[in-house]
User: Fold these one by one.
Assistant:
Number 1:
Amino acid sequence: MPVIIETKGVKINVDTISEKELTKLKKENNELYNLVKKYKNGLQ
Amino acid sequence: MTCIKKITQSIVNSCRSVRGLKPRALWAYRSDCTFTFSGNVITAINCPIFGVFEGVKYSLNAGGEDVVAEDNGTGYKHKFNAIVNVNGQVDGLDDIVVFVQKQDGEWLAYGAKHGLWNATQSNMSNDNLATTTVELASLEGREEFYENYSVTANLSVVHTSENMLSLRIGYVKGQPIYLTNDGEKLMRLFDLNGNEIISDSDSISITAPYSGEYLFVFERLSEQNQSYGINGYLLSKDISISSNIGAFGFYEMNIESIFAPDSDVNIVNCPNLNCIVFKNTLNANNGNLSVSAIERILIDRVAKGTICNITLSGTNPAIGLWSAAAVAAKNALVVIGCTITYNS
């Protein structure tokens, strides 16, 4: 089941986010980036 | 039948008395507890959770005074006074029973029949070193039947730890008992006779040696975050954690509500849960929560109005199954800066 992470002004589909978008997210919101990576890596 | 009891023994002043209580008292919500009384003696206590009043020197005080009426039997107003120096700790502390220990070791209980209620509370920033003075007392018309209750039930188990939380959890013989924490302080497992079964600071994993209740005592550091994880069948269906444990995890439990306003909460497979109050973070990934539980959790959190992190993915229902009210609450939380993770 696709997982959505949503916070103020940002809505991310963990399954479909591209590497380019991930790189951009890392620069803008490292905490959220780490959360997305955790889900992408199947750690949660 | 008469209310007037006739005293048959001698009334004495046995030499020299000593004032003072030990600077540590236990308390519990009266309605959570059951007591076995024999006159003014409590011979058995069953409280799912105890809290602690930590004091210094003579900062704790307790006692009773009679309330006399011409048209009613004599009652006793119980009182418990404490001086605390952490803001907000005693706000709303009502209908509790307090256990204090005299210097000679005897335990006394106050409010055991009808509860102690917040009577006065005062904090002034420039007075008394900004400490809070609180008095809990019997409500008018709900006085106790004795000046105090002597406790012969074994309170030593929950009193041994410097700072502790205790829970009574039931298991069926052969069922796995599994607890984890971060290795800082001991978790202790007792039978209800006070015999320690096992203790460890990292994890406990045994098979329940008998069917029935067990007592868990978690020692904790008062100023540092710690995390605990427990599984099993909590007898009360509700859990209240009123102090600053960093995080508490509940795994495959039958609990229905968690009140932990000062702790983060982790949930795995607790399908009966319908109410969770938490500090900042609720990780309910694989919580197996119901749609109605998700609605209530989100709406309750909107009412709190502070930033939070809530994880509702894994085995929880997808957002398409949520109620409109739940979706609206999720949207409101996102607007104030919360991070919500869910299944689409």
Note: Residues 30-40 of chain A form the longest helix (11 residues).
Number 2:
Amino acid sequence: MIDLPALSAAIGILSSDAGPWMWVVPGLLLGLAAGAVPGCGAGIAMAIVLPFTYRMEFLEAIIFLTSIYTGGGFGSAIPAILINVPGGPSAVATAFDGHPMARKGQHNEALGLALSASAIATLVSYFVLLLFVQPMSTAVLALGPTEFLFVILWGITLIGALAGRSMGRGLVAGLIGILLGTIGISVLGDMRGTMGSVYLMDGIPAIPAMIALFAAREVLKPIDSTHLVDDSALRTLEFSKIIAGMVAVVRYPGPLIRGGIIGAVIGALPGVGAAIANLISYSETRRASPHPEVFGTGAPEGVVAAESANSSSEGGSMTTLLALGIPAGGATAIIMGAFGIHNVTGGPRFFSEHKDIVYAIILSNMIQAVVLGLLGILVLRVVSMVVHVPTRFLMPAIVVAAVFGAYTITGSIVGPAAFAVFLAVGWIMYLYDFPVAAMVVGMLLGTGLEEEALRTWQLSGGDPAYLLERPVALVIAFLLIASMVAPALARRRQRASAAV
Amino acid sequence: MLKSKPKPRLGYLLVVAGFATFTAWYVGDAASASTQIENLALIVPAGVVSLAILAGLAVHEIAYGTPHHDPALVRARAPWLMVIAVAGFVAGIEPLGFTPATVVYLAVALPILGERRPLVIALYALGLGIGLGLAFSQVASIPAPFWGR
């Protein structure tokens, strides 16, 4: 399973040169900081530093970029927990229970839980990658567009069905999100929904829209409290509570292991990644729980499920990159860009010819996960101070940072304009109980969904019998239908018992 | 005593109608661009299912109303004043520059959120606005119109 001579050579490479290690801490800090700014995220930080990696050695460059990736994976959980605005789509589900915990004054514990779940899941996912990089790459190759189509549909359906009080409103939000995600030029070059505007040719900027939809409730809701945490006694920063939160993760082995497995598998699927992994892991943990009603009110296992999945998806997406040369998402696409800068072509050939380098990358990422756990404690002490800032000062500052982030992402006023429009949309959705998370996921995955639907159509020639030849797709389709029917039946039972 | 049935909410029905109008318009717009399967494979099914669910939501609201809602929150003016302030902030970025637009936005937003001390508003708006402008432009060297065109 492991090529021991190559592993030994990898250890030799990493122990003989301090160069690559010099970039771990700066990379993690950069990732943590970028992830903690809503709308910025590790991807943008990686894109900004990518040109600077030209002067580095190949391994140094990859370790620097993966350190940012690792730091950003946890960093995006920080605003999700403290202000209910995920730093990126990978932390959407973290906010579901992380922020209610913060509202109850358990922000230290929630951050500690998220940190240890992230560090452990990253470490374990890279260990699994080390063991199974070859067989996993073969398995991913066996999946086709039909399977990807159903995985994406499953993700959107899950969030639509589970995010709010009404499945109908959740599904509508998801479907409208899908439609919004397809605005722009089609594969045939047709303009759809652009109203003739050149600014919409590339579609609605999804990240600024996502930030606005999530920020609307927190930024606009009339303030009935002066701070994020009402009770001043609960706003204290307590190192012991952060540590207690970190240790408490061992009480939730089920969500941790389930999240780790879901994240690693989903993360390996190109175009799906952490954004879906955290939602599926959260939903499955809630479904499996004997007390699903506590989810959304500050359930620690919800935080563990979401964070373990989004962090372990890093190992999964790196599998696809290292073994197949296919970037599974934005961050791995940037790492692939660094491959190109150093005249390295990823994929099976690189894997077979440079197993020592691949193993060195994997080993260094395992060390990064350990360093993240230690560094995160120090950084959390600083970022947790946000709970001391009165909300009337904090909320406008969040808007300014988000608008700037929106400008940085699009490089024009289109991003801030999308932010302003979707801030109003998000507020209306909040007022009438339409779950914004479903719309966000629909928007993010709309284009990918359309591409997979088209490929499936082309392969099947429009014949539904084609599905019978795709057993994996059928299993996912069954799970999709079950995830719609089960919550509906549960709600009906709840209403019936309430009426008695 | 009989429990009175919750009344349907006009605002909710308007939102449902708004979503339905967008969906119908977008499907129509996409179909007018091209009726080929490559263009409509996802949009038509998603649009049709969305319209069907929206119709169901409207019928359910008219028939049963909704007991869970907060009319005071719906009527609150401050959120909409904040939306207008953010729209003004965004509109001001290119003509004024990011930094002056930030200062003006903060000076407008703080009173909406309940801050009444003019000196605090002025110091916060100027301090944060100029501080962020300098941090983003000088330290991070990110290209953006910090001082207008």
Note: The CA atoms of residues 8 and 65 of chain B lie 4 Å apart.
